[in-house]
């Protein structure tokens, strides 16, 4: 009855997160021993359930004739779980700052604004969606309170892509992963007992197999310095 009014719907789906259990709970008993142990059959069932639930949402929009003027965004918060997901050519998985842990799907559907089938290579992060949604809602937010760019407008207006500098940090107890990406150069550091660090050139090495820290010492030092300066302002709170 309110379909003519603006609305925002956020759906944080459980699948395919652990505990690994398909929609037919009777097939698998989940307990404290196996709740984080993936198996292929269950993982596929969870993905199929996610697909079905997204389909339900899209059908509801069609039913109420809202499809053409509704922006739908599908995005993941991190890469797949090691041992369960196939990350293709990417190295690493969830809980790392390698590409397999932070490069995730971002799909947008907005028939009145976005031509089907187009792709964008613009480097972005999920906080870009915050600015995008606020702009679409015509909310007044000071620029200095948001880090993101309006990625939706970037795509709909077909703006040229540009280089960005982005930072990541994942801290769990004594284990921490960091990353800095500037253009196609990416610095990755991991501390867990000992510290390891690498430099990659993503446009030629999406699988992060070739460490350039020795062959490109100036770039290596620059990205390390950028991370150190960023950490002065962005303190870990977890």
Strand portion: 15-25%
Strand order of the largest sheet: 3-4-5-6
Give the low-confidence spans.
none
User: How many beta-strand elements?
Assistant: 6
User: What is the H/E string?
Assistant: HEHEHHEEEEH
Rg to the nearest angstrom? 20 Å
Describe this structure in words.
The chain is α+β, with helices and mostly antiparallel strands. 26% of the residues lie in helices and 17% in strands. It has helices spanning 40-63, 99-102, 127-136, 151-156, 217-233; strands spanning 72-75, 106-109, 165-172, 175-182, 185-192, 194-201. The chain is globular. The model has no long low-confidence stretch (mean pLDDT 93).
Summarize this entry quickly.
The protein is α+β, with helices and mostly antiparallel strands. The protein is built from 5 helices and 6 strands, in the order αβαβααββββα.
